[in-house]
Amino acid sequence: MSESAVPEPSATPARETDSLQAAADAIHDEHPEFDEVPVIEADETVPPRPEEEIADADRV
Fold it and tell me: Are 52 and 41 spatial neighbours (Cβ–Cβ below 8 Å)?
């Protein structure tokens, strides 16, 4: 059988990695509202359930 022609992730050329990062940065700059998940419980009058507190702790 022949070897796979798919390159390893570490074999990605630096200039390609830089261009991918530049594209990701450009998309993020256009849509910064998707940067971080808001914590809704801060605005609620009802205390969060224990499982919500655990989920929020994982985000920090």
Answer: yes
Rounded CA gap, 13 and 5, in Å? 16
- Given a contact cutoff of 8 angstroms between Cβ atoms, the answer to whether 42 and 35 are in contact is no
Divide the 60 residues of the chain into consecutive groups of 10 and give the mean pLDDT of each group.
58 78 90 75 69 76
Could you state, in order of their start, the residue ranges of all structural domains in the chain? 16-59
d(CA 20, CA 27): 11
Answer yes or no: are the C-beta atoms of 9 and 2 closer than 8 Å: no
Distance CA 39, CA 46 (A): 14
